[in-house]
Design goal:
binds adenosine-5'-triphosphate; Rossmann fold; 3 domains; elongated; binds magnesium ion; alpha/beta; 14% strand
Length: 495
């Protein structure tokens, strides 16, 4: 066990970290903070949700010269939301020292960013494209950089950001420390490390599996055409507090979101074709728990730390094991429990096995929940609801009516009728999704090098806002209490 006091860090930073509620350092923090503070180049790999941000955040903040208003540290992140989140965490760590981290990302008005830059941030947390834009306009200069962090380094390569990254790293001529962090470090990272790092120390936390143990991982073998009904049933039975549903393409995410709304769930979608304001709005609704379900492409697979996500559903099996690891890693963070469920069509079983092999995890098979399972669940919910209500004191005004009724009808018949009335019928509103082809298993060594593909939802162009911003999410058909029960077999999270 390592306490933050054991690191040789300033009182200000120590206090800031205490205020964040951290007591002990996580294993990656215990290893990476001392090396990082020595100024070594390092590659840090640790499972999702284990505190990598603070692992690089503390050494970075500690190195900043507070008497200077120059930009001294750069963090590169693959998505805008992650750049923002990392900046927020760095601002918490640096608050006592008075260190300001500014997020810089595409989709936000560049003039607004130029204005914010006048406040002299010492650290920038950026997506590569927009940072380059500022470098070209000379609104950001990198001549005083002493620390560079690549968060989710492998994903930035996957997304085809290699040219941008090389251009940015090549432009930093001052002596600097470079740190790479991710839960997955495929081999292709080595080339980047060799080119831009100085004898990097490889820091890995010991564990056989690539995924955290506190996520129960399941899959269901189901034909493509039945997937949506199965997802609806799972949502009814498991009644997740907060769930992310991953779909393969932007179109898929749009269709899934509409389908879920049609059936009365409170869901919103997020992908790279939406305007930044819409993306921000959806993330906010989800964080505030105004909506229960966020439907997303892989744009939300990496790094996002939203507390309270209990369930991750892979409506479509992820493209590769790395994507699987990161997607399911949106739950089970900071030691909490989580559940993931992947829908796999019969021809994709080989692909699932490949994921199991690379991640060294066993994904447990579950059978397709039946319509009867849902009804049984709803009956149980109705019963629990009745029981709870009966125990409350505020039913007095109904007592005379009840007594009169009981004079005419026997009590068993009466209670049976009440349960029947309270039992919700599952919503079977027809929903049509465009079919997509199954994914084929591929060897892990051929993975990666994906071009920045339209399907993965990262492109900044075509920012169409397909949703009416003012439209409120529809009320979910079942209230949470009703759906909270009967999840023993399904690992639901009742309150
Ligand atoms: N020492 C600690 N004690 C308790 N909680 C911590 C500690 N360090 C970080 N956390 C919390 O753990 C959560 C996950 O941290 P973080 O987002 O840095 O994980 P990560 O390893 O970067 O995950 P990912 O691979 O998904 O990006 C955050 O909510 C963070 O505040
Ligand atoms: Mg992270």
């Amino acid at each position: 066990m390592t306490n933050f006091k054991d690191f040789n860090i300033s009182e200000d930073t120590l206090q800031a970290v205490m205020a964040m509620g951290f007591e002990e350092a996580t294993p990656i923090q215990a290893k990476a903070i001392p090396s990082g503070m020595e100024g070594k180049d390092l590659i840090g790999q640790a499972q999702t949700g284990t505190g990598k941000t603070t692992a690089f955040g503390i050494p970075l903040v500690e190195k900043v010269d507070t008497t200077s208003g120059n930009i001294q540290g750069i963090i590169l992140a693959p998505t805008r939301e992650l750049a923002v989140q990392v900046a927020e965490e760095l601002n918490r760590i640096g608050t006592k020292k008075g260190i300001f981290t500014l997020p810089i990302y595409g989709g936000q008005d560049i003039n607004r960013q130029i204005k914010a830059l006048k406040k002299r941030p010492q650290i920038i947390s950026a997506t590569p494209g927009r940072l380059l834009d500022h470098m070209k306009r000379r609104t950001i200069r990198l001549n005083n950089i002493h620390t560079v962090v690549l968060d989710e380094a492998d994903e930035m390569l996957n997304m085809g950001f290699i040219d941008e990254i090389e251009e940015i790293l090549g432009a930093i001529t001052s002596e600097h420390q470079t740190m790479l962090f991710s839960a997955t470090m495929p081999k292709k990272i080595e080339a980047l490390a060799q080119k831009f790092m100085n004898n990097p120390e490889l820091i890995r936390t010991k564990s056989k599996e690539m995924t955290v143990k506190n996520i129960d991982q399941h899959y269901i073998d189901v034909p493509e055409k039945q997937k949506f009904d199965v997802l609806s049933r799972l949502l009814d039975i498991q009644s997740p507090e907060l769930a992310i549903v991953f779909g393969r393409t932007k179109k898929r995410v749009d269709e899934l979101t509409e389908g879920l709304k049609k059936r009365g769930y409170s869901a919103e979608g997020i992908h790279g074709d939406l305007s930044q304001s819409k993306r921000d709005h959806v993330i906010r609704l989800f964080k505030e728990q105004t909506i229960d379900i966020m439907v997303a492409t892989d744009v939300a697979a990496r790094g996002l730390d939203i507390s309270g996500v209990t369930h991750v559903y892979n409506f479509d099996i992820p493209q590769d094991p790395e994507s699987y690891v990161h997607r399911i890693g949106r739950t089970g963070r900071a030691g909490r429990k989580g559940l993931s469920l992947t829908l796999v069509t019969p021809r994709e079983i080989g692909h699932l096995r490949a994921i199991e092999q690379v991640t060294k995890t066993k994904i447990e098979r579950k059978s397709v929940p039946t319509y009867t399972d849902v009804i049984e669940g709803n009956k149980q919910s109705a019963l629990d609801q009745l029981r709870e209500s009966a125990q409350q004191e505020d039913n007095k005004e109904y007592k005379t009516m009840a007594e009169n009724l009981l004079n005419d009808i026997d009590s068993v018949s009466l209670v049976s009728a009440a349960i029947k009335l309270l039992t919700k019928e599952p919503d079977r509103t027809p929903v049509h999704l465009t079919s997509i082809a199954p994914l084929r298993a591929k060897k892990s060594k051929n993975q990666g090098n994906r071009k920045r593909s339209n399907n993965r939802g990262y492109k900044d162009r075509n920012n169409k806002d397909r949703y009416n911003k003012d439209r409120k999410p529809r009320e979910r058909r079942y209230n949470k209490d009703q759906r909270n029960k009967n999840k023993k077999n399904w690992g639901g999270k009742g309150k």
